[in-house]
Each structure stands twice: as C-alpha cells, then as structure tokens.
Amino acid sequence: MDITLYNDIVTVIRHFSGLTRNCAKKLQETFPNLNTNTLYSILSVEYQRRMKSNYGKSQNNRNRYWDLFRKGVENQERPGILVKLSELFDIAPCLMAKLILQKYFDDQETEKTQQDKKEAREAQINVNKYLKNTYMIPDSDLAYEVFLCTVFDNLYSPLADAMKMSLGQQYEIRLHKDAMALGLTFRDEEYLRKFGYDKTPDLKLEVPVAIDGFVINWIESKALFADEELHRDYTKNQYLSYWNRFGPGLVIYWFGYLKKITESSDKRFIVRDHLPSHIKKLDISKASIELANGLK
C-alpha cells in the first residue's frame, strides 16, 4: 500500500471519536474499494497503540469511573452505562469493564473476613475469566453491564480474541493448501516443535525454492496488514530467529503491507501478500548427479 493512502486511513482513525465498531463502518464508507480485512487490521493496530497509553493513565481514575457507574445504576439509567463511559473517556469497553471489575473486587476484599480474602484476591487477579463468564459476577447489575461491554467491543472482547485466532488459523490452512497445490514439500510448526524448536515458521520447506530469483527455506503467514513498526517488531522477535536457524524465507502479510517496509537489498527474507505461483523448484535428481560427479 502507498504511504499516502495509509496515512489517509490512519487520519480517519485518529480523528474518530467513539466505538471501534462504528469507526470500522466509517472506514468502509470512506474507502469502499479497500479490503474490509485490511481496514480492520489497520484500525486494530492503531487503536491498540492508543489504548496502551490511555489504559495506563486510566488506572489512576478507577474510583472516578466506579462512582459514575454506581451513580448511573442508582439513577436507573438505561443499560449500557459502562459502554457510554468507555466512549466518553476513550477506553475500549472491555478495558473499562476490567477497571470496574478490579475496583469491585477491591471493595469486596475490604468487606470480607480474613478467611474469605484469599478468594477475593484471586478474583481480582483473574478478571479476564469474568469477561468470558459474566454470569459468575455476583452483582447482577454489574454482570449485565460487563456483558454489554463484551458485545460492543470488537477488539478486546473474548469473542474478538476467538475470531482473531480463528482468522489466523484460516489463513494458515490456506497457506498449507496453496503450498500443497504447488507441489511444495514442507514441515509445519507442530512437527518442528517436536524436535525442540521454540520459535518456528508456519512452514519449513524440505527443499528450497526460488521466488523472483530469491531462494527461500521457510514461509511465515500473518493474517494482518503490516506497517513499519509492526514489521520491525516481528522481524526482531520472530523472523531473525527463523533466518538464523533456517536461512532466508518468505513472509506473507495477507491483508497487505506498506511498500516502504521492503528493501530489495535485504537477503534475509522477502515480503508478499500471497503465496506466488511462479515458483522455481530445485531439481533434486539433477543436483544429486552433479554433486556425485563433483566428488569423483
């Protein structure tokens, strides 16, 4: 993707005030010709970076959020109080729910006897399980409010996490099918981990192949859009390990990437948004004969 178009998308996201699900609709209306998954991926990354800053600052305002929530309940406001607060203070609904749950269990621990405090502390630490199972929250008003947060949050909710994982698996399966259709021989990461590799690519080719003149030994699949920062993080935490162990490879960002993240001089790996079909395979039999002749 061209940097100008990318900056236009990011500008819309940064100037949007409200829930990410509504921002996603705004992006689709503004950029109707772009892939929905591409827009959602850019939105997700951009919003998560914003939340890293906002959520940290919001920890100091838990008491204020709690007071506003309790006041809303006492005034019998319509359900969705926490969702409204999340919009007002620019915090993802499920992150707002976590803050409120932490405050709730803090208060519960203070009120309980010494015998029950251990249970309250454990509940405070494991607030994520209450997002997944809101029926476990003792306060019925709070339980319903947290449930609504999981419904309206399309980035941090348990459902969003499950969908993200499912999407990643879907494109890994697609990569496997595409590789098999091209007649590539490979081992997957599950096989490699049995042999003690802690960091493994999605596919390790048994026989190297050439793509646009570049020989690759492994392929990594990412169901997302990559900007410079994200690509740099993955390079540091994953791709360099693959390169050190297996040599050069191929990274696939299925939803696109910024053109400027790729360098023609980079000999460690190449980047594409699909698995190219114009692959040159190594003739093993010919190579073996040449090697044998060379040893005579």
Descriptive overview:
The protein is elongated. The termini are far apart. β3 (about 215-220), α12 (about 230-245) and β4 (about 250-255) form a beta-alpha-beta unit. Helices cover about 60% and strands about 10% of the residues. The relative contact order is 0.09. Strands 1, 2, 3, 4, 5 and 6 form a six-stranded mixed β-sheet that branches. It is an alpha/beta fold and about 300 residues long. The chain has two domains: about 5-155, no CATH class; about 160-285, no CATH class. The protein is built from 13 helices and six strands. The protein has helices at about 5-15, 20-30, 35-60, 60-75, 80-90, 95-110, 115-125, 130, 140-150, 160-180, 190-195, 230-245, 285-295, and strands at about 185-190, 205-210, 215-220, 250-255, 270, 280. α1 packs across α3 (about 35-60) and α5 crosses α6.
The geometry reads as elongated
Structural classification: alpha/beta
Number of domains: 2
User: What is the arithmetic mean of pLDDT?
Assistant: 86
Roughly how much helix do the residues carry, as a percent range? 55-70%
The helix/strand order is HHHHHHHHHHEHEEHEEEH
Structure annotation, total helices: 13
User: Which stretches of 5+ consecutive residues score pLDDT under 50?
Assistant: 287-296
- How would you characterize the largest beta sheet? 6 strands, mixed
How many angstroms separate the termini? 52 Å
Radius of gyration, in angstroms, nearest whole number = 25 Å
Number of strands: 6
- Amount of beta strand: 5-15%
InterPro entries: CDIN1 (IPR029404)
Pfam families: TPD
Subcellular location: Cytoplasm; Nucleus
Keywords: Cytoplasm, Nucleus
